Amino acid sequence: MSTADYGHAPPARIARRLHHYLDPPDYVSPVARRLRAVDGLRLVAALLVVAYHFVASGAGSTRGAWEMPTTKVFPAAHHLAQYGYLGVEIFFAVSGFAICLSGWGRSIRQFTASRVSRLYPAYWLGVLVTTAVLTLSPTVNRPKSHRAVLVNLTMFERPLGVSEVSGVYWTLWSEMRFYLLFAVVLFFGATYRRVLLFCLVWTLVSIPAELSGSALWDAVFEPSYSQPFIMGVCLYLIHRFGSRVETWAVFGFSWLVEVHELARRSTWTSNALGWHVSWLGSVAVFTVLLTLLVLSVIGPLARLDVRWLSTAGAMTYPLYVLHDEIGYTAIRAFRHDVPRWPLLIALLIALLVLSHAVARWVEQPAGRWLRRFLETARRR
User: What's the Cα-to-Cα distance from 197 to each of 193, 246, 280, 335, rounded to whole Å?
Assistant: First the structure.
């Protein structure tokens, strides 16, 4: 039917065509296999965060692990490592894609069991191991109280007003809020139209939520970090249903809002590090990483079938929850006996080996057991 024919078409036919446009059938992606490049990008994001913590941020303060500013410890490398904070942004974008991938077509109970079994086993181990390390060697930071550790095991320590056992755990509450928001969509059933509307509404609501300064709005909508999640969800819609103008429009609008947010975050990072972190540099690094994610989902990188990338992706979450305080403590212990670069490389290798062991022998089996337990409890 041509455009001119719409004026004479029966209303029911127009309604069917409009419904097909807004709720298109599932698009059969030419890449049906696992997106291994996305797994690899997850590890890249984790390594960026590790570099930020060990080469640029608090580990290099006069009271930190190196006991001197990182500008002296790593006079050249700290200029690159300062942008490692953007690894968190890419984590959130990958999470937006992955949650749609794992939650599409599932019930609320199935989605909850999937997320709990995925997040909690490695996190519980991270809380306990970090607490043990800080208790045995409280040289850089002090261990939290017993009450704080127990509250941390819920992953709801931030809304309960309790500080995190490790500074990196703040991102997990942001993830949790995204899951809770997306669960509302799953309650009504995930469709192209509903998920795209969710992205658009969340983007628009984040703007007044950011301006209002309301603690309640911030707790519900997470306006500061909503845009990477939204872009990840849009990428999933493009992957599943194909490229559509309205999906790319929401993706592009969300990117523009994120560019504005990066001005705020680059200023905050500058204050935290004690030197200027370029906003344009932050935008450039984030855009390059986001482009790699796009290419990993719908571009030539989506055709990569290198199995070890999935192994690398499985190490990402354990590496994230374990590296912070353990790394600081190790740096403080060996900084005088081992040159800085060999120490950093050895520490990274040790953390990667530990993360692989946790992923294979703790996270995966414990996750399977926890999922079976939750599903059995649901049936009962």
Answer: 6, 10, 30, 52
Q: Are the C-beta atoms of 362 and 122 separated by less than 8 Å? A: yes
288 band by pLDDT with thresholds 50, 70 and 90 = very high
Q: Write out the two tokens for 151.
A: 């509250």
Q: How far is CA 195 from CA 34, 113, 131, 278, in A?
A: 22, 21, 40, 34
pLDDT digits (tens, 9 = 90+) for 94-109: 999 999 998 998 888 8
Rounded to 10°, the helix 279-298/226-241 angle is 20
pTM of the model: 0.89
| pLDDT surpassing 50 at residue 325 | yes
